[in-house]
Write a structure and sequence with these properties.
This protein has one domain: Rieske [2Fe-2S] iron-sulphur domain (Rieske Iron-sulfur Protein, 3-layer Sandwich). It contains 1 helix and 10 strands, in the order αββββββββββ. It has a 4-stranded antiparallel beta sheet, with no helix packed on it. The longest helix is centred in the N-terminal third of the chain and has 18 residues. The protein is an alpha+beta fold. 12% of the residues lie in helices and 27% in strands. The structure holds FE2/S2 (inorganic) cluster. The site of FE2/S2 (inorganic) cluster has 12 residues, from loops.
């Protein structure tokens, strides 16, 4: 049987090709899973490598100042905060919630904070967008350093 006899102008091969595209597009367009959670976010934020805090934040601070590398930063996922140190002794902090679609940023790349959901990149200096689809800078978090710990406020 000739394919063209089933549907004029549409061979079986073409029909399968169209179906394949129809299946792929929703998967690419999806931003979250069936629960509405962003895809690609490590729930504890500690298994994707990069410069992430070695331990959880606590009531007595977010992270040890000594654990924040100069010229980069650490992501403290359980506190939903990124603490950076653009230059020695100059500590800053930003919300870890990406302004694009709400994933937690998940990786440090030198002087940039990276959201691997859709690869938005932010500056460690001012939280501004330096790449990707994020529409706005990360929100600043007020911090200070007390007894070697970075604390809120
Ligand atoms: S949620 Fe899309 S880049 Fe972060």
């Amino acid at each position: 049987m000739d394919d063209r006899t089933e549907t004029p102008g549409l061979t079986r091969r073409r029909a399968l090709g169209v179906a394949g595209i129809g299946i792929a597009v929703p998967a690419l367009a999806a931003c979250g899973d069936d629960n509405g959670d962003p895809v690609g976010v490590d729930p504890d934020g500690l298994s994707q490598g990069g410069n992430q805090a070695p331990g959880p934040g606590s009531a007595d601070g977010i992270v040890d100042a000594a654990d924040v590398p100069v010229g980069s930063g650490v992501i403290v996922a359980e506190e939903r905060v990124v603490v950076t140190q653009p230059t020695a002794g100059d500590f800053r902090a930003w919300s870890a919630v990406c302004t694009h679609d709400g994933c937690l940023v998940s990786r440090m790349d030198g002087a940039e904070i990276v959201c691997t959901c859709h690869f938005s990149r932010y500056s460690i200096t001012d939280g501004s967008v330096v790449g990707g689809p994020a529409p706005a800078p990360l929100d600043e978090v007020s911090i200070s350093v007390e007894d070697g710990r970075v604390v809120r406020g």
